[in-house]
Design brief:
This protein has 13 helices and nine strands. It has 290 residues and is α/β, with parallel strands linked by helices.
Length: 290
């Protein structure tokens, strides 16, 4: 796993993780426990085209980003410490903001399936699908679901264009995805979520708090996150409104994270209803509760 040496993480934090927090022997055993080429080939959809923004950048200081074994193996051990104050508490906030009883759930950019598993625990009768661009991450996600005896489908695919049928899900989620995509891609993902949802279906987005990130630039320098400044300058609220969602609200989670929830409105809503969901604050458009 080639790691950039000039990032703040590698210079100051990596030695702590490597020497004190991470069980390196366990990681090494897991790394050598499987035929990664065979497993990735099994999961890879050959029709999937990797976007330039994804394959041309390093993520989390790892050269090659998520299209590497090292990224998949190290993601969970590191994330459990850096997602303050507690990874499961933060991810559980997605579940807490679900207001309906979804029967079909899609977790976009599911990574190693940590939030996907919580969704299945919370809604055991629902069909739960996780989709991610990295087959390496999906290998780990499958292992975790199997170990927990959770029947979850994991698919190789692009959240911008899943190829799944219109109006086929009651709930679409994305956790810690938007800060790793250019804002135009995040907007496209929300448009895809709108297409995939049934009328009255919910979308829930968990990520870093955009306001906090804007005012604490040092937070954006710790890891190599090529699109986090783009994310911090935007508004998930406004992006959701532009995608057509109503009743959009963002809440702070544990101070440094945020949850944004929206609903696909009924067809044929009036212009007055749409207009009432928008207000202008500080020169930007923000969606208010519908």
């Amino acid at each position: 796993m080639a790691i950039r040496k000039d990032t703040i993480f590698e210079r100051f934090l990596a030695p702590i993780f490597k020497n004190f927090l991470i069980d390196r022997d366990a990681l090494t055993r897991y790394y050598h426990s499987k035929d990664w080429t065979k497993e990735c080939d099994r999961l890879t959809d050959p029709t999937v085209v990797y976007p330039d923004y994804y394959r041309s950048q390093n993520f989390h200081s790892i050269e090659g980003g998520y299209l590497t074994i090292g990224a998949a193996v190290s993601y969970d051990p590191i994330t459990q410490y850096v997602l303050a104050p507690n990874e499961e508490w933060v991810r559980q906030s997605v579940i807490e903001h679900v207001q309906g009883k979804p029967r079909r759930i899609l977790d976009l950019g599911c990574g190693t399936g940590s939030t996907t598993r919580l969704l299945k625990y919370a809604f055991p009768d629902a069909e739960v699908i996780g989709i991610d661009l990295s087959p390496y991450m999906l290998v780990v996600a499958e292992d975790k679901a199997r170990d927990a005896s959770l029947p979850i489908q994991f698919r190789h695919g692009n959240a911008e264009s899943t190829g799944l049928p219109n109006a086929s899900f009651d709930l679409v989620t994305a956790s810690l995805l938007f800060h790793e995509t250019p804002s135009e891609v995040s907007k496209q993902i929300l448009q895809e979520a709108f297409r995939l949802l049934t009328v009255g279906g919910e979308v829930i987005i968990l990520d870093g708090n955009q306001g906090v990130l804007r005012h604490t630039p040092w937070l954006m320098e710790i890891f190599e996150e090529p699109y986090i400044k783009d994310f911090a300058a935007g508004s998930v609220d406004a992006w959701m409104g532009s995608a057509g969602f109503g009743a959009v609200q963002t809440e702070m989670v544990w101070g440094i994270h945020q949850i944004t929830r929206g609903v696909k409105p009924r067809l044929g809503r009036s212009l007055e209803e749409i207009r009432d969901q928008w207000s202008t604050v500080g020169g930007e458009q923000w969606v208010v509760s519908g």
